[in-house]
Amino acid sequence: MHISLDGFVAGPNGEMNWIKVDQDIFDHVEQRISRTDTAMYGRTTFEMMESYWPTAADKPDASKHDIEHSKWYKKVRKVVISNTLSGEGLTNTTVIASNLAERINDLKKQPGSDIALFGSPRATHSLMQLDLIDGYWLFVNPIILGQGVPLFAKVKNHINLSLIGSRPFNCGVTELDYVVNRD
After folding, report:
1. CB-count burial class (<10 Å; 0-12, 13-18, 19+) for 46
2. CA distances for 180 relative to 46, 85, 100, 112, 123, angstroms
3. Which among 113, 121, 96, 101 is positioned nearest to 4, based on CA atoms?
């Protein structure tokens, strides 16, 4: 998830035009998500993804990133947390509308690789409240927004983390990869 230095994932009106990305970040993300077989989204983020990625590689001016990510997106199992979205007609997609803790814990027990949650601040807040997040993969952008949608606004208790990796990128973004300590 992209985050500002002061902990916001979007501006006050949901704007994300402050997020910096470049080919180096795209290559790094593609390498990491290639080992991920389940992508999780909130409804809003899923609808944005669905409107672009299934056909992104088909555009005449498709970038390397568009082609690679579109290919991954089409094959990855998608899980959407939503009370309003119907799962009808969605390919390779499961919608979770109730019993969130039970359903997510069932997903975690299934064979496969990592489950990666993309964007989706409201879904992230719900998962945090239920202590269902096992790690935080953050891209800290070199900006202080001062206000907006905070990532950690709904935390009830402290969350102990261990840094398992970090990487600076030339565009000024720094990746921080944490695992949650539940000891």
Report:
1. buried
2. 25, 30, 19, 20, 18
3. 121
In 76-169, alpha helices (H): 100-109, 121-129
| pLDDT, tens digit (0-9, with 9 covering 90-100), for 45-61 | 999 999 999 999 999 99
CB 127 within 8 A of CB 134: no
Tokens 């952008």 belong to 141
Token code pair at residue 70: 């579109």
- Token pair recorded at residue 72: 């991954």
CA distances from 123 to 41, 56, 82, 134 (A): 7, 25, 8, 14
pLDDT in tens, the chain (183 residues): 999 999 999 999 989 999 999 999 999 999 999 888 999 999 999 999 999 999 999 999 999 889 999 999 999 999 999 999 987 888 899 999 999 999 999 999 988 878 999 988 889 999 999 999 999 999 999 999 999 999 998 787 889 999 999 999 999 999 999 999 987
